[in-house]
Every structure is written in structure tokens, then in C-alpha cells.
Specification:
With 333 residues, the protein is α/β, with parallel strands linked by helices. It has helices at residues 14-19, 56-68, 98-109, 142-158, 172-182, 203-209, 236-248, 262-271, 282-293, 299-313, 323-332, and strands spanning 30-37, 43-44, 52-54, 73-79, 114-119, 132-133, 139-140, 162-165, 189-196, 252-256, 276-280, 317-320. It contains eleven helices and twelve strands. Strand 4 (73-79), helix 3 and strand 5 (114-119) form a beta-alpha-beta unit. The two termini are 37 Å apart. The structure holds ligand PBG. Ligand PBG binds next to helix 6.
Length: 333
Amino acid sequence: MDLTYRPRRLRRTPSIREMVREYSLNPSDFIYPLFVHEGNDVEPIGAMPGAYRWTIDRLMGEVSRAWDLGIRSVVLFPKIDDELKTEDGAECFNEDGLIPRAIRRLKEELPEMTVMTDVALDPYSCDGHDGIVSSEGIVLNDETILNLCRQAVVQAEAGADLIGPSDMMDGRVGAIREALDEEGFEHVGIISYTAKYASAYYGPFREALDSAPREDGGKPIPKNKSTYQMDPANGREAITEAQLDEQEGADILMVKPGLAYLDIIHRLRNESELPIAAYNVSGEYAMVKAASAKGWIDEKAIVLETLLSFKRAGADLILTYHACDAASWLSES
Ligand code: PBG
């Protein structure tokens, strides 16, 4: 055949392929999510094989393992004891609470590790919502924000580097920015869950934290988070959220979940000059783990291909429970 262009020329050898490769993964792209609890034992999480509820002591070992693999950032999520859960989630701004203690300890032992936090009431709420639920069953926006600001300031005081509001209340990024600045934490960044969808992919995470919406008998509780998290049918709305977060002072924008929302990552990449993060969430992790346990897929190849797809879509950073495995696979090749 008389062909001018033969794209296969650049696929012929491994070194040529490497030369023309557009994207790559590095351990420093990853933010490693970790669960902590008050218990004395490290507990496995049913739908997330390889993920655990760590005690603060044992958490330190896992974080240093991640550091040694080249991971430079972790995000902490608390499993709070039921008796500490209230309607207003006030435990979230207890200075001696689980998360502030874990952050302080981590910053003592490994100060260079970047510590990101999650700001939302759901782990602390007896109703299992990210905001305060009114007696009529409405998730209250402005009242919730006051508590989120207190939570953010307590996390910053404990030593957090990046505050991650995941609650999807309107105006929370600006309010948290102001609260942090007022308390002298202008150096603490905000990684906003900008486009967070009302997704079924969070199922295993809610099991890990025992944080799903639940009826307590007293008042109507919305069964899902659709009045604040975004409708999976909407794309343009993510741009509106991104513009608002930027105006309100977010430093990094996040899309969540990741894999079913690669188009949203791409759209935000084109809309904004800020770094973009993708959250490869618990349900995505669970599916890969289940299929590879069955021997139906090649876990290493699937994970690395998936993580690369986030980079190609436009993400700079990836929150992933596969972080340690992926980092060690990357160092093999
Ligand atoms: C809490 C929060 C959730 C996740 C991160 N922060 C769950 C939710 O919104 O219900 C999900 C993470 C995952 O599924 O891996 N606001």
C-alpha cells in the first residue's frame, strides 16, 4: 500500500513508544486515603480488601510505608463511635477528637507528609448526612457551614496542610477560606470537592465509616444526598461549581467519582488553570478488587491503566486506595 502516514512506526519498539508517550504516572501524583478509628485493633473493611480501619498507632506505620514508596500526601477519614454522633455533628470540631489527634501525631512523626482532611458532618452525624438535617428533613445549608468552618479551623490547628470540603453546601469554600484566614491559617490550602456527584460508587466507603444516611425515628431523614450532591446527568453544572469554587478561593478542584466522570475531569481541565484532582472512589476500588480476586482481570494492569486514564483526562492528582500498590508497581518497571 502507498501510505504516507503509518502511525505504527511510532509503536514499533519499546524505546520509541516511551519517547512519544504523552502521560505518565508518578507516586507523587497520588493522595492516599486512610481510615482511622478508636479501636485497639486494625480492622479490615469488607468491601475494600486491602483497606483497613487503622488505630492511630498503626496508622503511622502505614503512612511511613507510603512515604517510602514515594507517596507525598494522605487524606484521613474517621470512623466515629456511635455515642459521639449528634444531629449537629459537634464532635467534628472537638480539638481532642480522633482526626485532630491523628493529624498531630502524623505531623510529629513525618512532618513532610502532606496531610489532607475531609470536611463534612456525615461521619459525626447521627443522621448520616453531610449537613444538619432540620426537623422537616431538610439538609440546612447556612447553619451547616458554621460547623464546617469550625471543623476546618480545628484541622488546621492540628497541622493539616490541605482542607477538603466534601459536603457540597453552597458557599462553603469561601466561608472556610475566611475562617482559616481569620485564625491565621492563610497558608493552609483548600482542595475542594468541586464536582461531587450523588453516586452509588460511595457504597463501600459508607460501610467503612458506618456513615450512610439513616432514620433515627425522630424526624424524616432523606434517604440519599441528591439535594446537595450533583445529579449524575449533569455536565455543565460542574463548570458552574468550578467557577464558584475558584471565586471563593479554592486552590485545587476535585472531581468525584473519577472513572465514570472522566468527561467532567476533562471539562474542568479546559475551564480552569488550577490543579485538578480525581477521586478514584471506594466503589471503583471494590469492583477491581472483586474481579481480580476471581481471577477475571489482571489487577496490576487494570489499576495502572485506570490511573493513567485520569491523567490523560486532565487530572494532576489522584486520590486512590490503590496508591501503595500502584507506587510499588511503578518502581518495578
Ligand atoms: C463524606 C465523603 C464520602 C466520600 C468521601 N467523603 C461519602 C459520601 O459523600 O457519602 C466517598 C469516598 C469514597 O467512596 O471512596 N462526605
